[in-house]
Design goal:
single chain; mainly alpha; elongated
Length: 76
């Protein structure tokens, strides 16, 4: 249960919190953390939700893209 809660906090921090699947993860994570009375982790979860998830997801919502992947030539 603890591993699931930590994974949920991480998901909220790096994924788009507006995604319905992430919302389900957040709800489950919140229930676990409340049962465990893990206030510092609930605060981290709330902070992640307030930020809206990952910077790349937030950038994409605003119409910005991240840097394009660099091409690498491979020779024998």
């Amino acid at each position: 249960m603890w591993d699931e809660a930590l994974a949920g906090v991480t998901a909220a921090e790096v994924l788009d919190a507006t995604d319905p699947a992430v919302g389900e993860i957040v709800a489950s994570t919140r229930a676990i953390l409340e049962r465990l009375r893990a206030k510092p982790y609930l605060e981290r979860l709330d902070a992640a939700i307030a930020r809206g998830g990952s910077d790349s997801a937030s950038s994409a919502k605003r119409g910005r893209t991240t840097a394009a992947p660099t091409e690498v030539a491979v020779t024998e």
